[in-house]
Amino acid sequence: MARHLMACTALVATVTAGVLVAPAAASDHGTTPGAQQVRKAAAAPGDVDGDGFGDLAVGAPEDAVQGYAKAGYVSLVYGSAQGVRVTRHKGITQDTAGIPGVAEAGDRFGSSVTTGDVDGDGYTDLVIGSGGEAIGTVAGAGAVTIVFGAKGGLGSEAIAFHNPKPAAREGFGNNLTVGDFNHDGRDDIAVSTGTKVNVVRGASNLRDIDEPAMTSFAPPGGGAGMGRIASGDINGDGFTDLVTEAYSDDGADEGTLGVLPGSAQGLKAQPIGRTGLPFSGYSVVTGDITGDGRDDVVVDTTASDGPDEFLLRMFPGTAAGLGAGVPYGGAVEPGRAGVLADTDGDGHADLVTSVTGAQDSDGIQNAGKLNIVPGSPTGLNASRARELTLDSPGVMGVMEGNDLFGTAVAAGDFDADGRADLAVGAPGKYLQTGGVSVIPGSATGPTGLGSLLFTPDSVDHPAARARFGAAVGATTP
Question: What's the rounded Cα separation, in Å, for the pair 386 and 463?
Fold first, then answer.
């Protein structure tokens, strides 16, 4: 089987082919060389290569590989003292040496991507979903690939796994999260599919296991189907918990938000909180909005025809688990919860929601925008909410119809300044070639200064209709 590695020779300037870079504010990157060196010496969330900076993974699941339509690929772009810079990157397909499987039409390798240290060696690993992967004769069953991090860059070791009982078109790997559920220093992988959540435990020898064991859990209120999942320490006991959204009857009917707690033995089946939702299909995100040491949960505003009190609703973390829902106090615009991350370094996670249907200046739909709501000791601060688009001052690029800016959102500390930076996928940009906008955090949150916009050309993988940016993955600091 022919295999290849994509070259890493793209150059970054103020404006280059496929890359636009905004000037950075001096105050954002004004640390002394000595201070920066200290940061590099410490372990960093999402740091694949061990240089102290978080790294960014981008999925392009619609790209053709070796002529196979929608085989898909993933690009890893490394962080630096200047943030994400595409001069250093690595591309991965299922035809790359060391990656299990082979690129085939419809695999959709990179349909989801996240990061975590699953073997506990100090290097962050990539966890990649291939939602269209065939397992034997079972079409579209789906699979998950782990590519292990290593000193100096992404390694060549990888394993893959799938549902032990694959079902046609279930898309195993499309919906996943990582978290250290048993607090052993190794991230575990949770994959939702059908009516269950399947968990693979992190282990020091995971790269040597051909078929890692899975444990299945039924989500609170489940029975008919699973929605989105997320991980976070909701009760503040040091064990990561699993947040689920599921439905018991019909996907258009009521849903249930629930939390399965972590423990020294791993996830427990008895929930530490559950509450009904007027619909299923919400996205859920976790992060410490109030700064009390417990992660809070936010459900998004997608169900615009539902009861107003469930549009952008926060459920605080408490010592007992999931607290009672708190309605958002500001104006609500239908959108999808993207990430909770501390973008201004004040100790409070800020909420980022995406409105992919937003119009551009010419009234063309699906250009996309972000709404950013700062966190505070009392919750989400609606009075300081603001919008960001590709037309915002300082943000590189131009807001255009069908960009679908905000389809995927992740956060990581790519410049190691203690503030979360945003990575925003726009898979519809440039006639569905796609692009990713990286917007650094600052003392006042994301402003656009120092931002960049890059495309498949930037990572030496020029491809039409690749939908680059349909998935983005990083570790929220």
Answer: 34
Q: Angle at Cα 257 formed by Cα 253 and Cα 261, nearest 5°?
A: 150
- pLDDT tens digits, residue range 130-161? 999 999 999 999 999 999 999 989 988 999 99
Counting beta carbons within 10 angstroms of the beta carbon of residue 318, is it exposed (0 to 12), middle (13 to 18) or buried (19 or more)?
A: middle
Q: Which 8-state DSSP code applies to residue 29?
A: S
The model's pTM: 0.91
How far are the Cα atoms of 287, 380, 400 from residue 312, in angstroms, in the given order? 14, 10, 26
Q: Note every long-range contact of 198-205, with CB atoms under 8 Å and residues 24 or more positions apart, other chains counting.
A: 198/163, 198/172, 199/242, 199/266, 199/267, 200/161, 201/266, 202/116, 202/117, 202/118, 202/119, 202/120, 203/118, 203/119, 204/119, 204/120, 204/121, 205/119
Query: CA nearest 108: which of 86, 77, 134, 76?
Result: 134
What confidence score (pLDDT) does residue 86 get? 94
Pair 151, 211: CB distance under 8 Å: no
CA atoms of 23 and 238, how far apart (whole Å): 39
- For residue 272, CA distances in Å to 54, 198, 217, 232, 363 come to 32, 19, 14, 13, 46
β-partners of residue 242 are 231, 260
Whole-number Å distance between alpha carbons of 358 and 369: 6
Sign of CA pseudo-dihedral 338, 339, 345, 347 = positive
Question: Minimal CA–CA distance to 351: which of 379, 377, 325, 327?
Answer: 379
pLDDT at residue 194, as a whole number: 87
| Cα angle 24, 30, 34; round to 5 | 140
Do the beta carbons of residue 371 and residue 335 sit within 8 Å? Answer: yes
Rounded Cα gap, residues 419 and 335, in angstroms: 24
The token pair at 407 is: 């389809």
Percentage of the chain modeled with pLDDT above 90: 79
Three-state DSSP string of 270-326: CCCCEEEECCCCCCEEEECCCCCCCCEEEECCCCCCCCHHHCCEEECEECCEECCCE
Residue 31 has pLDDT above 60, yes or no: no
465 token code pair: 């209709």
Q: Which amino acid is at 240?
A: T
* DSSP secondary structure string for all residues of 228-253: EEEEE-SSSSSS-EEEEEEESS-TTS
Mean pLDDT estimate for the chain: 90
Q: What is the pLDDT of residues 339-374, one digit of tens each?
A: 999 999 999 999 999 999 999 999 999 999 999 999
Interatomic CA distance for residues 358 and 351, integer angstroms: 18
Neighbours of 7 (CB within 10 A): 12
At 49, the amino acid letter reads D
**Which uninterrupted H or E stretch holds 35?**
helix 33-41
